[in-house]
Protein backbone atom coordinates (compact mmCIF):
# COMPACT_ATOMS: atom_id res chain seq x y z
CA UNK A 1 0.00 0.00 0.00
CA UNK A 2 1.13 3.55 -0.68
CA UNK A 3 -0.18 4.92 2.63
CA UNK A 4 2.54 5.90 5.11
CA UNK A 5 1.74 5.61 8.81
CA UNK A 6 1.82 8.82 10.94
CA UNK A 7 4.88 7.72 12.91
CA UNK A 8 6.78 7.20 9.66
CA UNK A 9 5.87 10.50 8.03
CA UNK A 10 6.53 12.34 11.30
CA UNK A 11 10.11 11.06 11.09
CA UNK A 12 10.22 12.19 7.46
CA UNK A 13 9.16 15.68 8.56
CA UNK A 14 12.14 15.95 10.90
CA UNK A 15 14.50 14.57 8.27
CA UNK A 16 13.14 17.07 5.72
CA UNK A 17 13.69 19.95 8.12
CA UNK A 18 17.30 18.90 8.66
CA UNK A 19 17.87 18.53 4.92
CA UNK A 20 16.58 22.03 4.19
CA UNK A 21 18.85 23.63 6.79
CA UNK A 22 21.89 21.85 5.37
CA UNK A 23 21.14 22.82 1.78
CA UNK A 24 23.58 25.13 -0.01
CA UNK A 25 22.75 28.80 -0.51
CA UNK A 26 22.52 28.31 -4.28
CA UNK A 27 20.10 25.41 -4.09
CA UNK A 28 17.99 27.07 -1.40
CA UNK A 29 17.59 30.24 -3.47
CA UNK A 30 16.84 28.44 -6.74
CA UNK A 31 14.26 26.18 -5.17
CA UNK A 32 12.62 29.06 -3.32
CA UNK A 33 12.64 31.25 -6.45
CA UNK A 34 10.89 28.62 -8.54
CA UNK A 35 8.37 27.87 -5.79
CA UNK A 36 7.41 31.55 -5.56
CA UNK A 37 7.14 31.89 -9.33
CA UNK A 38 4.98 28.77 -9.76
CA UNK A 39 2.65 29.55 -6.87
CA UNK A 40 2.21 33.11 -8.16
CA UNK A 41 1.33 31.78 -11.60
CA UNK A 42 -1.23 29.46 -10.02
CA UNK A 43 -2.77 32.45 -8.21
CA UNK A 44 -2.97 34.38 -11.49
CA UNK A 45 -4.54 31.33 -13.10
CA UNK A 46 -7.13 30.92 -10.34
CA UNK A 47 -8.15 34.58 -10.40
CA UNK A 48 -8.38 34.51 -14.20
CA UNK A 49 -10.63 31.44 -14.06
CA UNK A 50 -12.81 33.05 -11.38
CA UNK A 51 -13.20 36.27 -13.40
CA UNK A 52 -13.87 34.53 -16.70
CA UNK A 53 -16.35 32.00 -15.29
CA UNK A 54 -17.91 34.20 -12.64
CA UNK A 55 -17.38 31.39 -10.14
CA UNK A 56 -14.74 31.67 -7.44
CA UNK A 57 -15.18 28.04 -6.41
CA UNK A 58 -13.93 26.91 -9.84
CA UNK A 59 -10.81 29.03 -9.45
CA UNK A 60 -10.26 27.66 -5.94
CA UNK A 61 -10.70 24.08 -7.15
CA UNK A 62 -7.96 24.60 -9.74
CA UNK A 63 -5.48 26.67 -7.69
CA UNK A 64 -3.85 23.63 -5.98
CA UNK A 65 -2.33 22.58 -9.32
CA UNK A 66 0.45 25.09 -8.65
CA UNK A 67 1.15 23.87 -5.12
CA UNK A 68 1.23 20.24 -6.24
CA UNK A 69 3.57 21.07 -9.11
CA UNK A 70 6.12 22.93 -7.02
CA UNK A 71 6.07 20.28 -4.30
CA UNK A 72 6.61 17.41 -6.72
CA UNK A 73 9.52 19.33 -8.28
CA UNK A 74 11.17 19.64 -4.86
CA UNK A 75 10.86 23.42 -4.52
CA UNK A 76 10.41 25.22 -1.18
CA UNK A 77 7.90 27.70 0.20
CA UNK A 78 8.46 29.83 3.29
CA UNK A 79 5.27 28.40 4.80
CA UNK A 80 6.67 24.88 4.52
CA UNK A 81 10.08 25.59 6.05
CA UNK A 82 8.35 27.44 8.90
CA UNK A 83 6.82 24.10 9.83
CA UNK A 84 9.56 21.57 9.06
CA UNK A 85 12.87 23.23 9.95
CA UNK A 86 12.09 23.93 13.64
CA UNK A 87 11.41 20.21 14.13
CA UNK A 88 15.03 19.41 13.31
CA UNK A 89 16.03 22.04 15.88
CA UNK A 90 13.71 20.52 18.49
CA UNK A 91 15.24 17.11 17.76
CA UNK A 92 18.75 18.53 18.24
CA UNK A 93 20.00 17.34 14.87
CA UNK A 94 23.74 18.02 14.40
CA UNK A 95 24.39 21.37 12.75
CA UNK A 96 20.80 22.57 13.10
CA UNK A 97 21.04 25.73 15.18
CA UNK A 98 18.80 28.74 15.62
CA UNK A 99 21.06 30.83 13.38
CA UNK A 100 21.05 28.11 10.71
CA UNK A 101 17.25 27.99 10.85
CA UNK A 102 16.96 31.78 10.53
CA UNK A 103 19.40 31.72 7.62
CA UNK A 104 17.22 29.17 5.85
CA UNK A 105 14.06 31.19 6.46
CA UNK A 106 15.73 34.37 5.20
CA UNK A 107 17.00 32.76 2.00
CA UNK A 108 13.64 31.14 1.27
CA UNK A 109 11.84 34.45 1.86
CA UNK A 110 14.15 36.23 -0.59
CA UNK A 111 13.83 33.48 -3.17
CA UNK A 112 10.05 33.27 -2.89
CA UNK A 113 9.70 37.04 -3.16
CA UNK A 114 11.94 37.24 -6.22
CA UNK A 115 10.05 34.44 -7.94
CA UNK A 116 6.64 35.90 -7.17
CA UNK A 117 7.77 39.35 -8.33
CA UNK A 118 9.00 37.89 -11.61
CA UNK A 119 5.58 36.39 -12.27
CA UNK A 120 3.92 39.64 -11.18
CA UNK A 121 5.90 41.61 -13.76
CA UNK A 122 5.21 39.05 -16.49
CA UNK A 123 1.47 39.00 -15.76
CA UNK A 124 1.26 42.79 -15.49
CA UNK A 125 2.73 42.97 -19.00
CA UNK A 126 0.17 40.50 -20.34
CA UNK A 127 -2.75 42.28 -18.64
CA UNK A 128 -1.80 45.68 -20.13
CA UNK A 129 -0.28 44.81 -23.53
CA UNK A 130 3.15 45.78 -22.25
CA UNK A 131 1.81 48.69 -20.15
CA UNK A 132 0.30 50.37 -23.24
CA UNK A 133 -3.37 49.85 -22.29
CA UNK A 134 -5.50 49.91 -19.16
CA UNK A 135 -5.56 46.64 -17.16
CA UNK A 136 -8.06 44.07 -18.36
CA UNK A 137 -10.84 42.61 -16.17
CA UNK A 138 -8.45 40.24 -14.39
CA UNK A 139 -6.06 43.11 -13.69
CA UNK A 140 -8.91 45.17 -12.25
CA UNK A 141 -9.85 42.29 -9.98
CA UNK A 142 -6.28 41.94 -8.75
CA UNK A 143 -6.12 45.65 -7.94
CA UNK A 144 -9.35 45.39 -5.94
CA UNK A 145 -8.03 42.39 -4.01
CA UNK A 146 -4.87 44.27 -3.10
CA UNK A 147 -6.75 47.35 -1.96
CA UNK A 148 -9.34 45.53 0.15
CA UNK A 149 -6.73 43.36 1.87
CA UNK A 150 -4.39 46.21 2.82
CA UNK A 151 -6.32 49.45 3.18
CA UNK A 152 -9.40 47.46 4.12
CA UNK A 153 -7.63 45.90 7.10
CA UNK A 154 -6.06 49.24 8.07
CA UNK A 155 -9.40 51.06 8.05
CA UNK A 156 -10.86 48.43 10.38
CA UNK A 157 -8.16 49.22 12.97
CA UNK A 158 -7.27 46.63 15.58
CA UNK A 159 -10.08 44.35 14.52
CA UNK A 160 -8.80 44.36 10.96
CA UNK A 161 -5.26 43.48 12.00
CA UNK A 162 -6.53 40.72 14.30
CA UNK A 163 -8.55 39.31 11.40
CA UNK A 164 -5.48 39.44 9.15
CA UNK A 165 -3.37 37.61 11.71
CA UNK A 166 -5.97 34.90 12.36
CA UNK A 167 -6.44 34.35 8.62
CA UNK A 168 -2.67 33.96 8.29
CA UNK A 169 -2.55 31.44 11.16
CA UNK A 170 -5.37 29.38 9.66
CA UNK A 171 -3.80 29.61 6.22
CA UNK A 172 -0.60 27.87 7.19
CA UNK A 173 -2.52 25.40 9.29
CA UNK A 174 -4.00 24.24 5.98
CA UNK A 175 -0.97 24.81 3.73
CA UNK A 176 1.43 22.98 6.03
CA UNK A 177 -1.11 20.20 6.35
CA UNK A 178 -0.82 19.96 2.57
CA UNK A 179 2.97 19.74 2.82
CA UNK A 180 2.75 16.98 5.42
CA UNK A 181 -0.10 15.22 3.59
CA UNK A 182 2.19 14.65 0.62
CA UNK A 183 4.39 12.54 2.90
CA UNK A 184 1.44 10.23 3.66
CA UNK A 185 1.75 8.48 0.30
CA UNK A 186 4.53 7.00 -1.81
CA UNK A 187 2.59 7.40 -5.07
CA UNK A 188 2.33 10.58 -7.14
CA UNK A 189 -1.47 10.30 -7.38
CA UNK A 190 -1.75 9.78 -3.63
CA UNK A 191 0.43 12.80 -2.90
CA UNK A 192 -1.62 15.01 -5.24
CA UNK A 193 -4.94 13.93 -3.73
CA UNK A 194 -3.69 14.49 -0.20
CA UNK A 195 -2.27 17.94 -1.00
CA UNK A 196 -5.27 19.13 -2.99
CA UNK A 197 -7.81 19.12 -0.16
CA UNK A 198 -6.23 21.46 2.44
CA UNK A 199 -4.94 23.85 -0.27
CA UNK A 200 -8.45 24.15 -1.70
CA UNK A 201 -9.77 24.98 1.77
CA UNK A 202 -7.24 27.77 2.39
CA UNK A 203 -7.74 29.40 -1.00
CA UNK A 204 -11.53 29.30 -1.07
CA UNK A 205 -11.85 30.68 2.46
CA UNK A 206 -9.60 33.63 1.57
CA UNK A 207 -6.91 32.98 4.15
CA UNK A 208 -3.68 34.98 3.98
CA UNK A 209 -0.66 33.23 2.44
CA UNK A 210 2.58 35.19 2.52
CA UNK A 211 3.89 33.89 -0.83
CA UNK A 212 0.60 34.23 -2.71
CA UNK A 213 0.49 37.78 -1.36
CA UNK A 214 3.99 38.41 -2.73
CA UNK A 215 2.25 38.21 -6.11
CA UNK A 216 -1.22 39.63 -5.45
CA UNK A 217 -0.15 42.92 -3.95
CA UNK A 218 2.93 43.84 -6.00
CA UNK A 219 1.01 43.20 -9.22
CA UNK A 220 -1.75 45.47 -7.93
CA UNK A 221 0.81 48.22 -7.39
CA UNK A 222 2.33 47.64 -10.84
CA UNK A 223 -1.12 47.96 -12.39
CA UNK A 224 -1.85 51.23 -10.57
CA UNK A 225 -3.90 50.20 -7.52
CA UNK A 226 -4.55 52.81 -4.83
CA UNK A 227 -2.19 51.54 -2.13
CA UNK A 228 1.56 51.74 -1.56
CA UNK A 229 4.45 49.38 -0.89
CA UNK A 230 4.34 50.56 2.72
CA UNK A 231 0.64 49.68 2.95
CA UNK A 232 1.36 46.24 1.55
CA UNK A 233 4.23 45.49 3.94
CA UNK A 234 2.66 46.98 7.07
CA UNK A 235 -0.96 46.00 6.61
CA UNK A 236 -0.46 42.61 5.03
CA UNK A 237 2.91 40.97 4.33
CA UNK A 238 4.64 41.34 7.70
CA UNK A 239 1.64 40.30 9.85
CA UNK A 240 0.92 37.49 7.38
CA UNK A 241 4.46 36.11 7.69
CA UNK A 242 4.16 36.09 11.48
CA UNK A 243 0.74 34.45 11.37
CA UNK A 244 1.93 31.83 8.87
CA UNK A 245 4.83 30.98 11.20
CA UNK A 246 2.52 30.57 14.19
CA UNK A 247 -0.05 28.53 12.30
CA UNK A 248 2.34 26.11 10.64
CA UNK A 249 4.55 25.57 13.65
CA UNK A 250 1.82 25.14 16.26
CA UNK A 251 -1.15 23.48 14.56
CA UNK A 252 0.91 21.20 12.31
CA UNK A 253 4.60 20.82 13.14
CA UNK A 254 4.54 20.82 16.93
CA UNK A 255 1.35 18.78 17.18
CA UNK A 256 2.50 15.96 14.90
CA UNK A 257 6.01 16.02 16.38
CA UNK A 258 4.75 15.77 19.96
CA UNK A 259 2.30 12.92 19.44
CA UNK A 260 3.66 10.86 16.53
CA UNK A 261 7.43 11.43 16.75
CA UNK A 262 7.82 11.92 20.51
CA UNK A 263 5.18 9.55 21.80
CA UNK A 264 4.44 9.09 25.48
CA UNK A 265 4.43 5.66 27.18
CA UNK A 266 1.20 3.73 26.72
CA UNK A 267 -1.20 3.57 29.64
CA UNK A 268 -1.24 0.35 31.63
CA UNK A 269 -4.82 -0.64 32.49
CA UNK A 270 -5.25 -3.12 35.32
CA UNK A 271 -7.90 -5.76 34.63
CA UNK A 272 -10.82 -5.90 37.05
CA UNK A 273 -10.15 -8.39 39.83
CA UNK A 274 -6.46 -8.72 39.01
CA UNK A 275 -4.14 -7.96 41.92
CA UNK A 276 -1.72 -5.14 41.29
CA UNK A 277 1.88 -6.20 40.99
Write the layout of secondary structure elements.
Layout: H1 6-22, H2 25-53, H3 56-62, H4 64-72, H5 78-90, H6 98-127, H7 137-148, H8 151-155, H9 158-181, H10 188-204, H11 210-223, H12 229-261
Helix pairs in contact: 1-5, 1-12, 2-3, 2-4, 2-6, 2-7, 2-11, 3-10, 4-10, 5-6, 5-12, 6-11, 7-11, 9-10, 9-12, 11-12
Describe this structure in words.
By secondary structure, this protein is mostly helical. It has a single domain (6-261), classed as Up-down Bundle (Glycerol uptake facilitator protein), CATH 1.20.1080. It is built from twelve helices and no strands. The protein has helices at residues 6-22, 25-53, 56-62, 64-72, 78-90, 98-127, 137-148, 151-155, 158-181, 188-204, 210-223, 229-261. The radius of gyration is 21 Å and the shape is elongated. The mean pLDDT is 96.
Low-pLDDT ranges: none
Average pLDDT score: 96
Rounded to the nearest angstrom, the radius of gyration is 21 Å
CATH class: Mainly Alpha
* CATH fold label: Glycerol uptake facilitator protein
Shape: elongated
- Strand segment tally: 0
The string of secondary-structure elements, in order, is: HHHHHHHHHHHH
SS-based class:
mainly alpha
Give the termini distance in whole angstroms.
41 Å
Determine the strand fraction and express it as a percent band. under 5%
Number of domains: 1
Query: What's the CATH H-level homologous superfamily?
Result: Glycerol uptake facilitator protein
Amino acid sequence: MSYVQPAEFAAKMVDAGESKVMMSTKDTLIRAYMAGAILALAAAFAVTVAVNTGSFIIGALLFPVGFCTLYLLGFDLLTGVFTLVPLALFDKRPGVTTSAMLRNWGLVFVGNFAGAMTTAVFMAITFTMGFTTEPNAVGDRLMNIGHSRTIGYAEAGGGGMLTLFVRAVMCNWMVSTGVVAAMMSTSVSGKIMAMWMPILIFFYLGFEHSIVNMFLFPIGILLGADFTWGDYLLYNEIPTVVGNLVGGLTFVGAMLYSTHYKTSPKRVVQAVGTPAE
